[in-house]
């Protein structure tokens, strides 16, 4: 959707922009996006996860998955096959990890140890080899959601933080006082990570590790990105309305209604 | 009931039935019967045109579907074809033919079984 479309009242109602849910608010069902070119696998995944109260969306290719993310918003977790025609699983994961830190489980027939190690090192939180036991997949999904995906707001294409700020993570932009502001992939991912913390402080080391996995990047670099992100989304008067520095621990995303 | 052919893992089918009952099994059987013939045809067409990448892709998809319903021999045949397609140069494509024929033969057996089982299940649903 273009910015003009988002702003039009009719479309805005349809988009159902959602205000952030912070701890204590009613929990949304967690959303899982499963991507596989085998429809019979998708049927099993859907059946197994819906029994656990999860909402499951499916895509039969990497391209379709990206399109769904752009149109419907990021999921809380993705299950991704590797070998798919067109945009394959690795390319899809790389692209999604550019602007977010959605946890990813690789579900594939590729059982080569090097591939497994490489993908877990680069972007996968878990790796399951087909044929798989549906119960095992469910347990791993639930464990992962509990462990790292505490993204407690609804996964809408445009997430409304408050009356002043909305965020379109997949589109890599913020909408500040009605004006679209482009974010770099790093800023977008940083914002995702901070929002994932749901007002709790996020440790600096954790942020460095998730933003630049496997690279030696120093805190100063993170500070620069935080500064630039603040310049883009915080009020011009210098007030720190959203990103709060927690001395000795890191940063927290704490918009006014969560105080 | 039709006896399961050799190479079919009944435990996998039981687990699927336990997970989603007859509706899930029906859905999976329908999907495999709908899509797998295209994959088998794509493997054959890939081989005939010397496109081993297409052979690999089709064999990989079949391996996934076969494993999902516990068709172990079909999955093994698909895996063999997939690995050969990766390891073979276009000039040696003829050496892949026995693996392709083996896959086609396994698929024929699995398809017959699926069709009969599907018919039985749909008749059972209609009469209940």
Describe the protein.
The complex is a heterodimer of chains A (259) and B (128). Chain A has 259 residues and is of the alpha/beta class. Chain A is 41% helix and 19% strand. Chain A contains ten helices and 13 strands. Chain A has helices at 3-7, 9-15, 39-50, 62-72, 89-99, 113-122, 134-147, 185-196, 204-211, 219-233; strands at residues 18-19, 31-35, 55-59, 77-80, 104-108, 126-129, 159-160, 165-168, 173-176, 179-182, 202-203, 243-246, 250-253. A five-stranded mixed sheet of chain A has the order 1-7-8-9-10, with no helix packed on it. In chain A, strand 4 (77-80), helix 5 (89-99) and strand 5 (104-108) form a beta-alpha-beta unit. In chain A, helix 3 (39-50) packs across helix 7 (134-147). Chain A is globular and about 55 Å long. Chain B has 128 residues and is an all-alpha fold. Chain B is built from four helices and no strands. Chain B has helices at residues 10-48, 52-68, 72-87, 97-127. In chain B, helix 1 (10-48) packs antiparallel against helix 2, helix 1 (10-48) crosses helix 4 and helix 3 (72-87) packs antiparallel against helix 4 (97-127). The longest helix of chain B is centred in the first third of the chain and has 39 residues, at 10-48. The relative contact order of chain B is 0.17. The chains are: A alpha/beta (259), B mainly alpha (128). The A-B interface holds A 36-41, 43-44, 47-48, 51, 81, 83, 85, 109, 130-131, 133-135 and B 12, 15-16, 19-20, 24, 27-28, 31-32, 34-35, 57, 60-61, 63-65, 67-70, 75, 79.
């Amino acid at each position: 959707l273009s910015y003009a479309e988002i702003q039009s009242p009719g479309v805005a109602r349809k988009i159902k922009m959602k205000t952030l849910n912070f701890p204590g608010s009613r929990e949304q069902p967690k959303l899982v996006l499963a991507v596989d070119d085998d429809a019979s696998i998708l049927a099993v995944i859907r059946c197994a996860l819906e029994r656990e109260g999860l909402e499951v969306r499916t895509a039969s290719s990497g391209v379709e998955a990206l399109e769904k993310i752009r149109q419907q918003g990021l999921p809380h977790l993705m299950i991704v096959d590797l070998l798919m025609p067109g945009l394959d699983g690795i390319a899809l994961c790389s692209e999604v990890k550019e602007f977010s830190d959605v946890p990813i489980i690789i579900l594939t027939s590729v059982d080569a140890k090097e591939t497994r190690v490489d993908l877990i090192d680069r972007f996968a939180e878990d790796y399951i080899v087909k044929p798989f036991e549906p119960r095992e997949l469910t347990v791993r999904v639930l464990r992962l959601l509990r462990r790292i995906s505490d993204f407690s707001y609804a996964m809408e294409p445009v997430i409304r933080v408050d009356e002043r700020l909305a965020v379109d993570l997949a589109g890599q932009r913020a909408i500040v006082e009605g004006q679209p502001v482009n974010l770099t992939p790093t800023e977008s991912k940083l914002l995702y990570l901070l929002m994932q913390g749901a007002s709790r402080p996020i440790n600096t080391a954790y942020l460095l590790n998730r933003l630049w996995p496997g690279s030696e990047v120093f805190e100063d670099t993170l500070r620069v990105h935080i500064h630039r992100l603040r310049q883009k989304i915080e009020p011009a008067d210098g007030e720190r309305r959203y990103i709060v520095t927690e001395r000795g621990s890191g940063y927290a995303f704490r918009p006014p209604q969560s105080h | 009931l039709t006896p399961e052919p050799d190479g079919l893992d009944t435990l996998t089918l039981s687990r699927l039935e336990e997970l989603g009952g007859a509706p899930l099994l029906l859905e999976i059987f329908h999907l495999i019967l709908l899509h797998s013939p295209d994959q088998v045809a794509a493997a054959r067409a890939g081989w005939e045109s010397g496109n081993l990448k297409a052979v690999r892709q089709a064999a990989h998809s079949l391996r996934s579907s076969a494993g999902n319903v516990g068709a172990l021999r079909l999955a093994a045949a698909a895996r063999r074809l997939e690995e050969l397609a990766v390891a073979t140069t276009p000039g040696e494509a003829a050496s892949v033919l026995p693996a392709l024929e083996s896959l086609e033969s396994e698929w024929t057996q699995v398809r017959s079984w699926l069709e009969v089982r599907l018919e039985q299940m749909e008749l059972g649903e209609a009469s209940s």
